Amino acid sequence: MNSSGTNRYHNWLKNGDLESVNDDLVNQNLHDRGNCLKELDYHGRTPLHVFAAHAQKLSTTLTTVGVMLVCGNLEAFTLQDDFGETPLDIASGNKACAAIIRLLSCTAEEAKALGHRGLYRRYDPIVYWKQMMFDWCKTRSWEECVKFVEGQDDEHNDELVLEVLKYWNSVVLHCVAQHSQKCTDWLVLLVLRILALLPSALVATDRANNATPFGFANKFEGCKEIKDILKLNPKYISSTPFPTLLLRFLPTKHHEIYGPYNTVCQFIKHMKYDKAELVVEVEDVLKPTRKCDVCSTATTKACGRCKTSYFCSAECQKAAWKKHKKTCKPPTTPLATEADLRALHKGMLLLNRCIQEPGAGDGPTSVVLDFLRCEDLLTL
Hints:
Elements: H1 8-14, H2 18-27, H3 30-38, H4 47-53, H5 60-72, H6 87-93, H7 98-104, H8 108-123, H9 125-138, H10 142-149, H11 158-178, H12 185-197, H13 213-219, H14 224-230, H15 234-239, H16 242-249, H17 259-271, H18 275-285, E1 290-291, E2 298-299, H19 314-324, H20 338-354, H21 364-373
Antiparallel strand pairs: 1-2
Helix pairs in contact: 1-4, 2-5, 4-6, 5-7, 5-8, 8-9, 9-11, 10-12, 11-12, 11-13, 12-16, 17-20, 20-21
């Protein structure tokens, strides 16, 4: 402790310099960090007390620093300063943001049991998943990264994924580039998916080296395939349909991560339905029965000739024949089977989740149709 009764953490926190606190906490050894976080200022306050007094504006750095301060000095939870206030008392009195109030309401026992990772997952999921992405990058677990980015878990959502990718000026993509020495399909797919969600990540620079992801790939000898992608510009990424990017940079066919795209797209191309017909057909498949065209009675009996009109009885079919005969024609192309339509519906949901395309609309059908309009699909 210096002569003013404060250490560097007290001063940084009073001045709102959260980045200096964060960087120092990350780089300090555990012994030195622990001693600093337990020192008291001239009001008997630890750095956690001071943090609680200046935690009104929520940010990722704020919650990150909060978790590290808590884990660095669990005793401070219940420690009263010279005014008889705990960190929670101070936070409440100074109208700290709700996230910090919740964090400081945790007990020391709970915090100890959860540890850094558990606290981040509960109170700061952006940092938690950023760290998970870092861990997967270090072990080159690219498939796990892809699953997270595509949101293949009920715990994830598009907003969370985007915030993780934006964290610290796209530091996740920098980390991917740093560990991209060996090319795999999953690695290429991951980089394409990140850029489809956040094209600006291509030109983002990290704080320490002022380097873009391409600069990181060069510095750490990333593979040529990833360098070629990272040399693109955001405008090209934003204006190019995702299927086109796949075909350009991931041309491998009959691969496990390509299968769903091939199957669904070939079937859609074969059917050639417009949007309205596609919606009706898919919705019909999900219903247990159809309705009679005459009396609306539930039925599964289709006209034997056109296969598109339904009648519950011979009487209803005869009653409708005068009008129906004008449109009753055999199908010119093979009708889709129920299994085909169920596969289409599943594929629509998959594409709605996995394919991000500018102007694709707000529903799975519009995404499928925009996907179909991409001429490059004709080569699949």
